[in-house]
Amino acid sequence: MLRLYLFISLMCLVETDADETCASFTKLSFHSAVVGTGLDVRLMFYTQNNRTCAQVINCTFLGNLNVTKRTTFIIHGFRPTGSPPVWMEDLVQGLLDVEDMNVIVVDWNRGATTVIYTHASGKTRAVAMVLKNFIDRMLGEGAALEDIYMIGVSLGAHIAGFVGKMYDGQLGRITGLDPAGPLFNGKPPEDRLDPGDAQFVDVIHSDTDALGYKEPLGNIDFYPNGGLDQPGCPKTIFGGMGYFKCDHQRSVYLYLSSLRKNCTVTAYPCDSYRDYRNGKCVTCGPSQGEPCPILGYYADNWKDRLREKDPPMTKAFFDTAEKEPYCMYHYFVDIISWNKNIRRGSITIKLRDKDGNTTESKINHEPATFQKYHQVSLLARFNQDLERVANISLVFSTGSVIGPKYKLRVLRMKLRSLAHPDRPQLCRYDLVLMENVETFFRPVLCSRLNM
């Protein structure tokens, strides 16, 4: 440990390219990954006034850093090929779009570039010490810990956690984007990211069955699509490198989506993904009007709500579309059937507006049970939010290929928006669905007796 502290101290005395004009992220080759690289941490500083021309700073040269502003550190993870992260520039620009802040890219590519993952993971604490040294200098110049925000990707999430522990959890915020699982799964809190590492810790888990960490690590842990396979990512090895990294990187792109403001990804606190899909977790407070947590940059709007919990932790689930902006719009489809016998099956619902735009939801994650005069409420997720629905179609299916075809007799179907509870609810009465046959109809406004 003494050798590590001496190494970190010497790093502040080494001449860096402080006068370098428009610094760029370190680019290495696969050859470098094979032979290995020694650790070298460069801090590249951006503001709204120098959005595309980074200034290299360190603990002896703060450059034009205004320590009274919020400072956001972006910390990447394992780089097995040596190439710069493809998302880095978008993340820098997105942060500067939403707030006048300092953005510091923590470039530890010399250290993260190796084909041997253990070599990279073994350098995470050393990177954290470099950042601790730098933040100490910022504090000496008048910075406040509550204004320090760290966004860590994969191994970078645990680096952020190590920095937070050195300040007894007083950093303002840490966001972990699919924190690394290998070599960290099952580790005690002192050896990984933990909810106590900052005043607010939010985590997006997008690859829990491979490269990411499965268990909760923050005050709020978001699990898109259950945290497993992400829509639009390759399902087999024939998808090339995307098969290995697409799910893992999806956490970054979901965070980026929150910066662009072209949609708001709402998540639903819940005990399990199954309960969320079954519509058991669609309210976020005593009254339906209370807002649910928002994924990404604005997740800290829920910080005060979480402080009311003991412990101040929750898991939140949601589904996404296959591509940007990833938003899904949630509706309930309430069906009261009048079949004499019980029917089990799935429902596909398609909406169409007057302009011909269509959106579809397949509610087939598990069979629904339809009983006479019993209402079944199915959670439908659409990738478009059609404000004025002109036509609806329904398909009922039991999933049987060779068995007899059944009918589902619907006494009343009701469509209601979760995102816009004040929007008029749409109904259809006395409808017979033939199995696997798409049935079209014009909805009507639900009568007040059925609201």
From TrEMBL:
Membrane topology note: Peripheral membrane protein
Catalysed reactions, semicolon-separated: 1-hexadecanoyl-2-(9Z-octadecenoyl)-sn-glycero-3-phosphate + H2O = 2-(9Z-octadecenoyl)-sn-glycero-3-phosphate + hexadecanoate + H(+)
Annotated Lipase domain residues: 37-326
Pfam families according to UniProt: Lipase
InterPro entries per record: AB_hydrolase_fold, Lipase, Lipase_LIPH, Lipase_N, TAG_lipase
Source domain of life: Eukaryota
Alphabetically ordered keywords of this record: Cell membrane, Disulfide bond, Glycoprotein, Hydrolase, Lipid degradation, Lipid metabolism, Membrane, Secreted, Signal
Location in the cell: Cell membrane; Secreted
Extent of the signal sequence: 1-18
Family statement: Belongs to the AB hydrolase superfamily. Lipase family.
Task performed by this protein: Hydrolyzes specifically phosphatidic acid (PA) to produce 2-acyl lysophosphatidic acid (LPA; a potent bioactive lipid mediator) and fatty acid. Does not hydrolyze other phospholipids, like phosphatidylserine (PS), phosphatidylcholine (PC) and phosphatidylethanolamine (PE) or triacylglycerol (TG).
Protein's recorded name: Lipase member H isoform X1
Organism lineage: Eukaryota, Metazoa, Chordata, Craniata, Vertebrata
